[in-house]
Amino acid sequence: MERQFLFVLITVLYPIFLIADHYIREKRKRLDSSRNKIKEYQKTILVFWFLTILVVLNEYLQPIPSINFQFELSLMNTVFMSLVVLLGYIQYRSSRITETNITAFASKSKTVVNYLPKSRQELSWFIMVAISAGFCEEVLFRMFVYEFALEYIGVIGSILFANVIFAITHIDTGIKNLVGAFILGLVFSLVYYFAQNIWIVVALHISIDLNAGILGYRVHQFNTAIK
Known about the structure:
Elements: H1 3-28, H2 34-61, H3 75-94, H4 102-109, H5 120-168, H6 178-195, H7 198-226
């Protein structure tokens, strides 16, 4: 399979599919039931891994693969990974819900509340979504799309282009959240650019997504308990 086809698939057809799917569901006004949400989680996981497996298999069939999964142990990478672990711990500790911070947490998550888990079953599936997104999206956007576009539009152009597409694919979290997704994608890209290690960015991405899911779950459980 040609890299050009995969590039078009990920940067054009995939976003169009997500946008169309989003507006079809908005038009139908589907109920926010646990069953529907879990189906969305499952569909998201399936699409993530389908595209990622296509890219990885294709790359390793190429004479010179453009993506590299090797973990190079260096001082900078050790510092980055230590910061990721510290950030994850701080996020987890700071996501404890109390009567004093429930309003602030609910406000932060209101734009994506319909996508966040509310039950233990939803949380279990969301964890799998977070792990899949952390790995698959970094391979697709920070590695493949960035490396492919690098030859044509340079470092800055590639980073901006990859993260515009990355943001668009997050339309399901709400239009207002696209800017936040773009900025977060830029952070991931800069970490990858300086560390040259995809595993650090994967760990950072998973940590942030997991925290969002746990936070949404805790907010819902706290609100349910006080009613």
